[in-house]
Amino acid sequence: MTVNHVVARLDAEDPDSPANARLRYAVESSNERGLFNVDTSSGELSIANDDLSQIDFEEFLLLVSVQEVGDAEVINACLNTSM
To answer: Sorting pLDDT into bands at 50, 70 and 90, what band is 39?
Structure first.
């Protein structure tokens, strides 16, 4: 897989009105090597650098969060992705 290849699409919904329904995604932990990047608006999780080709295992566990852009609490989720 190459840099910027999308490996997952995170999907969350907020039933608030359109102005308050905008969400922001983030990788919170388990990405110490910077192997993954999440688009803060779309939730697309992609490969961030070429170091991934040097990894011998095919499963990664990331802690991701999604937060309402307005005043709201953060929701954390655990993402297990296989490649």
So the answer is: very high
Give me the DSSP letters along 35-75: -EEE-TTT-EEEE-SGGGGG----EEEEEEEEEESSS--EE
Task: Provide the token pair at 12.
Answer: 């969350």
**Contact between residue 35 and residue 47 where contact means Cβ atoms under 8 Å apart:** yes
Phi, psi (rounded to 5 degrees) for 53: -70, -15
pTM: 0.72
Q: Tell me the domains of the chain and their CATH numbers.
A: 6-82 (2.60.40.60)
Distances (CA, A) of 19 to 23, 38, 41, 68, 70: 10, 22, 14, 10, 8
